[in-house]
Batch of 2 targets.
Target 1
Amino acid sequence: MATETHALASPPAGANADWTVDQDWARFTPEEHRVWDTLFARQAKLLPGRASDAYLRGLDVLKLSKPGIPDYRELNARLMDLTGWQVVAVPGLVPDDVFFDHMANRHFVAGNFIRRADQLDYLEEPDVFHDVFGHVPMLADPVFADYLAAYGRGGQRALGLDALKYLGRLYWYTVEFGLIAEPEGLRIYGAGIVSSFSESRFALDDPSPNRLGFDIARVMRTEYRIDDFQQNYFVIPSFDALLKATVETDFAPLYAALKAQNDIPVAEIVEGDDILTRGTQDYAQGKAA
Ligand code: PHE
Ligand code: FE
């Protein structure tokens, strides 16, 4: 993720100058492939009727149902034809400027390890299942593909404007935890949700979280939780609308204005919110009690 702090300042031994490493697909053990298959089967069953159309189409056209951890060489051949994106392996979290540079050039940096069989639901760092199952299907969608590349350029700019906090929230509430209003109802598209067994139900079905209409400034002011389910989800009307709103807004004056305003705590509703569901916050309160 773009907003973490990173211990490393230069690529670790064995990595290329751009921080990438060879996926070295042949090194994955049968047990590691089985972890992927277990996670895949569990999620694939849950997602029809919950995940956005674009996500489900991506899963299909990229042939991600083929058993085992995907080989990036195979995946990239398909992705290149569809949207020009490529998945590149990195040894762990990379510095923000490296992350944005890859993204602006349509390189999606992905983890190079898979969680252990006894940790299917607990993750400290994104692994191949989160990165590939969660993110990559959306990269097969031409509009979302353009959005993420534009986001990379926006990141390079935000670094210079000391505004990563704000731009990082846009990533969080769209790329990681976004919802979309489709004709048949609300659907999930954020990678953090679609790759999570429990949050893929919570985000749509639970009465606890707020579900608010997407608004760039509102999103950028809103704090988020990294250690539990979200208390707010933001709903876009379409990927076209998301792309248009973000590309056509100059974020520099927006960042300047936001620096003079308070951040909004996770569960708070403020004046002007487009409230689709006002959350009970029972889940969060139950945890605190
Ligand atoms: N419009 C943004 C800016 O002025 C760039 C951007 C586009 C950021 C799309 C995110 C997504 O910085
Ligand atoms: Fe992610």
Target 2
Amino acid sequence: MAGPVDNYAVMGNPIDHSKSPVIHTLFANQTGQSLRYTAILVDIDGLQKAIDAFFENGDLGLSITVPFKEEAWQLAEKRTSRAEKAGAVNTLWQDEHGQLRGDNTDGLGLVADLKENNGITIKGARVLILGAGGAVRGVLEPILSEQPVDVVIANRTRSKADTLVDLFPDETLSASGFEDIEGRFDLIINGTAASLQGEMPPIPGHVIDQKTCCYDMMYGAEETVFNRWCREQGAGKTIDGLGMLVEQAAEQFAIWRGVRPETREVLGLLRNEIA
Ligand code: ATR
């Protein structure tokens, strides 16, 4: 007779449009793992209660999404070093001592999508990152560990870019406002929330040439405003964040289940689904 089901879930608010249940269910089918993965809508002030209830029930692992990643960081009793630096946690599980462990797989997901799915070399590249909020902080460490030659963080509020540079002592890292960005870049990553409002961060066109790869951490059925603008400036390649979503989920699956799924097929299925 089959034993109790291994339960996993994503917690967020809102959660209706989360693709995580589909992604993890496809991973489970592909790897022959028996588990159930659901989406849980959590009250804005109810994260701790929801997490406690989940693990007290014997359930195994959680994905944490907007707007709870920073709070999950605080609630985790033990964090990986990359989560420590990210200041945000998107993956929770309990270890054999009942301790709540936290990791952040967003940056690994971004790097995997760039390198494995799109053949982009970050080592030695000049990288421009737009935005200085939680999303950017979450991916900085894995980007820097790829050894780019230069990383400029440009933000609407310049002081927040300065604060981020202070948090990551790395000589390749510098801060800028949008208007005063200098030179061209090999890779430009949009980590601002501007796409959500259908807006484009006002950056100068000279940052892009035909060799530039532009990456929007957002995705949607339509091309994002950022990617369209980059394409119109003559960027060599534009990529949206769907691959990052699938890759960060694959890292979570590997943490929980000890096996890393193949992502290509799952990404293809999702691409068809959102189209
Ligand atoms: P997240 O967790 O998604 O990073 P956040 O911490 O609130 O959310 O950060 C949002 C980021 O998007 C910030 O860098 C913000 O710029 P400010 O620091 O100047 O607020 C940026 N952002 C949001 N809307 C924007 C817009 N319309 N144009 C440019 N940048 C925008």
